[in-house]
Amino acid sequence: MDLSDNLADIVTRVGRSVVAVHGRHRMPSSGVIWRHGVVVTAAHTIRREDGIEVTLTDGRTVAAVLAGLDLGSDVGVLKLDGADMDPIDSGDAHSLKPGHLALAVARADDSGISADFGVIGSIGGPWRTWKGGQLDAFVRLDGGLRPGFSGAALADMRGQVMGICTSALMRGAGMVIPGMTVERVTDELLAKGHVSRGYLGVGTQQVALLDAWVNKMNLSFSSGLLINSLAQGGPAEQAGVLIGDVLIELDGKPCRDIGDVSAALGSANIGQQLQIALIRGGERHACSITVGERPRRNSCR
Question: Keyword Protease on this protein (predicted)?
């Protein structure tokens, strides 16, 4: 009975800062009052830029202004119009361990708070999503999320919110966007409406390196990235990279697959020069590329 009462108390306390976000047709998603006048939610649930509304804990529905979306980390930020509610008490997701009990607290419709009780499935270090975003920690729940729980607060057994839930970053599993990621992305979205990411302006395909190349260049790996397209006027084209080159190193580190490119760009500042190594005509070729800012609607890396 004590456990049951404790869980209900956590849901009540956290629920005071959980709202329903009406940013798509039919079912609303959940959102969390992260700062005074600022709501964070799962970006994939926002399907329009105007006419977004938020249902508060007291039942009022107020207008919200879209500050920005980052689909890479699946964080969306809204600014409330005419409402100032207490933000959540956030904690450090790095304190979570597999098997820890957790509560997802949602407000998916006008009927009030909903809760889902489960455990943390797995934990890991910094993780790059398939959409190119960087999460400060990998936190997977033990199952999927029920409809309306994307954007919900994920609380530990002390009632601290470790982050927000999303169903968009891993197929068949619920994920937690850690609070430190939410903080970082929220800062950038409030400041400029989007998250800047590094960009080389290349399209690539992983290829196996010829044994002769591996032996000749004394490489410790056997795959690289074939450059099969170049963005016109992009950083790579300006640096003299050619279609047909095979990218093998970025900033002195092996470039075996697209994950290595993402990792290099994730740690690079826009405007910084990266030293790259290519195979061109069977010979090693080196040059430097100045990292650009990735266009917001461009499929090149």
Answer: yes
